[in-house]
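haha ok so turns out i had the wrong file open the whole time. this is the CORRECT one, sorry everyone. sequence first:
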Amino acid sequence: MHEDVFRADDGHGSATREPLPLPLDFEAHYVMNQEAWHSYALYRLGVNDVAERAVHRAFLEVLRNWDTLLTEANLPQQTWSVLRRVVGDEALCRARDGITTMPSTIGLYPALLKLPQRQLDVVILRYVLRYNSHKTGWYLGITASTVDHHCRKARERLAPVYHRNRGTTAQLKEGQ
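then structure:
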């Protein structure tokens, strides 16, 4: 953790940088939680390097907001929510990137990538990662009814691609 938190260059062009002193209570929180956080991220993301990156990002976000987080009633719950959001974001990015490599005979995946960002995120969380509306809303910071609204709007945008190619598929089957 120390190696990524450095003081700004002092202007002398020094090749080495001195690590910032971390708050002792933050270091204790890091040591106490790092193993559990990594296990959780690895379980959710399935790849060690990706899990390590997500945990690192989460701890850096916690560090940036450490003074504010200390005023919260339940520090472990607040920092765990940061981890869950970062891991969810990482899973979402991996799923979004995975769409570009999926084969599609009807053009569905390229059409998905043309959806507005919020609709794409909702579709990925709901239909690829199979989260319910409440969990999807929690990750995106919106209500379950707003998640359902974005799902409806995404299906409306994707319907022409589906229906256009559905007719072609039915015609091919009749001709066989």
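DSSP finds eight helices and no strands in the chain.
again sry for the mixup
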